[in-house]
Write a structure and sequence with these properties.
The chain is of the alpha+beta class and 206 residues long. It folds into two domains: 125 residues, no CATH class; 47 residues. Helix content is 42%, strand content 22%. It starts with a helix and ends with a helix.
């Protein structure tokens, strides 16, 4: 039973870690090579990784004209971002400026001979088999490819979540100690009294 319990909590921990990894902002230092629009099919397989149909850039449930941004890392590897509004839907980035962001990306395009390095703030994953792309939130020009960024916001959110979990755990333990344990003790005492009464009753008859 203990193994089942640990397996359950392990699955919950993996789910929470994956959820946070997808949702929290990430930062890439890249060089933009292209910014374009493309009609993209959205199916039941990947629709949860695209904008909700009631946001500004999602005009259709099945197909939509999605903005994309191609980029190259300093080591030569590539990455593709989508550029969609998030609206008031989860995740709560409240993004409504995808058109402006696309203009910024187009303006910051550069070549390998004369690179312009930018920091792309985004959330989400790139998973090619399901046509899933991270969503770009902000693009900022930086001094060079070696610029680093410490994720202060992520740290603050994780600390607050940890404090919330500890508070909920403490409340649960207090609830269990004040209400459940006494109730269980009373049930056990009632069971003991009943067993004692039955043993005395049947003992006299025998």
């Amino acid at each position: 039973m203990r193994k089942v319990k640990w397996a359950f909590w392990g699955i919950v921990a993996l789910f929470v870690a994956g959820f946070l990894d997808y949702t929290l902002p990430q930062h890439d230092v890249v060089r933009i090579t292209e910014a374009y629009n493309r009609v993209t099919s959205v199916s039941w397989v990947n629709k949860y990784f695209y904008a909700s149909p009631d946001t500004g850039t999602a005009e259709s449930v099945d197909t939509r004209d999605v903005r994309f941004i191609n980029a190259v890392f300093p080591d030569g590897s590539v990455k593709v971002y989508r550029n969609e509004d998030t609206g008031w839907i989860w995740p709560p980035y409240f993004k409504y400026d995808s058109s402006n962001l696309q203009a910024v990306a187009s303006n910051l395009k550069s070549t390998d001979a004369a690179p312009k390095w930018v920091m792309v703030t985004h959330y989400g994953w790139r998973f090619a088999p399901m046509s899933i792309y991270p969503n770009a939130i902000r693009i900022t020009e930086v001094a060079g490819p070696d610029v680093s960024y410490f994720p202060w916001l992520n740290v603050v959110i994780l600390v607050l979540l940890a404090a919330l979990v500890l508070m909920i755990r403490r409340m649960w333990l207090q609830f269990w100690e004040r209400l459940v344990d006494p109730a269980v003790a009373e049930i056990q005492e009632a069971g003991d009294r009943t067993r004692g009464w039955l043993s005395r009753l049947f003992g006299r008859k025998s």
